[in-house]
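Protein modeling request. Please complete all fields; requests missing the sequence field cannot be processed.
Requester role: graduate student
Desired output: 3D structure, token encoding
Chains: 1
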Amino acid sequence: MAGCGFVMGIWGGILQNILSLIFALLSGVVLSKVKKVKFRKLRIPLAPYFCAGGILAYWAVYAA
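Delivered output (64 residues):
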């Protein structure tokens, strides 16, 4: 997160965090429905979502 914020600036870092947490939340909801487990009991790693959010935020900041 710090590396992405350093490269993209404050607004790119904030965008990365927002995108990452939205992706993690959506996949957590889908996994809890598929596995029929309560959402509170589900444990998912955040690192892959922060990587994906960083890539998408980088594209959004520098490709636009």
